[in-house]
Amino acid sequence: MSDTTTSYTMIDTQEALLEWKERALQQPSGKVALDLEADSLHRYHERLCLIQYADGDYSCMLDPLSIENMAPFTNWLSQAEVWMHGADYDMFLFLHTWGILPKIILDTQTAARLLGFRQFGLAALVEHFYGVKLSKSSQKADWGQRPLPPNMLNYALNDVNYMPDMAERLVEELRAKKRYHWFLESCQHDMARARERFAAGNPEPWRIQGSGKLNRRGLAALKELWTWRDLEAAVRDKPVFMICSNAELIDWSIILQDQGAICPPNRFHNHRRARFQAAIQHFYRMDEDEYPQRLHLPRHPKKDSFETRLDQLISIRNQVAESLDIDPSIIASRAVLETIADQEELASTSLMHWQQELLGFRS
Description:
Structural class: alpha/beta
Oligomer: single chain
Number of strands: 6
């Protein structure tokens, strides 16, 4: 196999999509690979811009920006078993765009980690299995542009061209090591979590990393500045980081919390500077009873045996991981082990069945 592609099939009409669906329906379950490209690095209102498809001896791209009715694809997708790689964001895109997920997503990254791969990115796996170095030149490209240049088309198809064959190799190894049922449960678990996260949403998205160190006044400043930035980005259809970073929002909020003064960065043009100052003035006019509350997670005293039990669980996990030659965190993260050390009855809901078996909670 090579990392170059000289011809491209782009499905960008209703007629071509129907023809594609006929082919896709004929493929055996679990023999199809997909990948998605979006424009979240270039727009506030992110869109699913490209779908890459491969089934072993055929690959193509579907253009959801050009096809008015994607129902033939989504109808197929809801019943399909597909391979993807590192599918967390892909699942969000499916749910955000159409509100559905495939019947099951078989994740090559999950398979590789369960087999003990420490380098489990797609490029690392392709190099491992095929000795090919994939180009990363289009990772941050604007996938909403049309037409797509040849280098981006190459990049896009190489994200799926190797996956059908790679999937067979991974499954063979998983079965040989009797870990295939771990893999299936892990994939189903990841899909359930993706659905839960999407359904829950984020009612307070302004509580970004670092906000925990702010008092109520600082949180009020952060909320006002976050709202200003979000509106700036939305009106101009730019990603929020192009307006300012999260770190800047936290730094400015700390200054305002401590009664300090901040000036708009020099890179802001006059109109943006004026709106920035208006947001700060709005913050100054707020009453204290309007300030957001700090989040206080419920705490209860740890059992006297907590530290001893935690050390025991970590030791068991690490020994099992060493014997299997896999990363210990795949069996259970430290946070999960802390939960179980404090409330052992939560093992059944905090761990998948195969994890419970490895740690001795399930026979």
